[in-house]
Amino acid sequence: MKYPKRLKPGQWGSTNRSSKPKVITFDAYNTLYSTTLPVMEQYSRLGRKYGLNSSAQELTLKFPGVFKNLREEHPNYGKYTGITADKWWEILISNVFAPAKVSSQMINEILHVFEGFGAYTVYPDLLELLELIQQEFPEVVLGVVSNTDPIMYKLLENIGLKSYFKNHVYLSYDLELSKPDPVFFEIVLQDVVKQHPELLKNSTIEELKSGCWHVGDEENNDLNCPASAGWSAVLLDRMNKYNHFSGTLERAQRSLHQLYTDKIDNNADQSWELSMKQVDAIQLSERQYVISNFRTLSQLLFPRPNNQQSLN
């Protein structure tokens, strides 16, 4: 079969997709939750409250370099260099605003705001999908697979998502392993099976992989990495940054600098509006897909006549 190909809504049930999902994992940031406004716009607003006049544009230009350098100096959010994850973020905030001096009170307020709905939102289409699975497909195991630090545990609780994932939250900080290493997904599946041995009742772990899906917003980490581990993989691209939804279906290569900027540039209203205009899915291979929103994913994974939510 020739790939890539565009899948219209009426074609979802006839694709060469894998068997019924048994395990579905999600990336966290920009997948389960996203910022309401660009991060540096929020930083700039809080900075003005404390007498700092750094513009959002100025902070945005500085962020990729600061983020890259801090990851190199204190890898895995400082776990190997003797600092806490909170301290790691304190350093990042200070360095982004440098040479201006940032008070500890301001840093604490920023950290607090970014622990919940003060900075983030959860899109309705995600909640629809999670509720559908929880109510009608409770046998499907849901998990989180993310390159992040333990602060995310508090965030998941504060934004009301923790209960969907129970004991299946897998962070690079804890595992000391990160995407795009496919071993990450091997370890995740081993733990899922340990907690749910019934998944292997009629299959081997290799056969089980045909029912394992991962969804995330970065092509290398969330599309190529799980696919190389034998999973089906879905790239969530609300803003068509990878250009898969263009008329030619030709993808755009994103540099490391662009990927770092992607982490801070989301405007929830804009990305929601654009994502809901795209109802098609793009199939890149037998097990790789691109979607713009979770309503498309819902119909791709659970294609039933009564699962036809409005995409308006």
TrEMBL record:
Q: Which InterPro entries match?
A: HAD-like_hydrolase_domain, HAD-like_sf, HAD-SF_hydro_IA_REG-2-like, HAD-SF_hydro_IA_REG-2-like_cap, HAD_sf
Q: Which residues cross the membrane?
A: none
Q: What would be one Gene Ontology cellular-component term for the protein?
A: nucleus
User: Could you tell me what this protein is called?
Assistant: LAQU0S07e01816g1_1
Which species expresses this protein natively?
Answer: Lachancea quebecensis
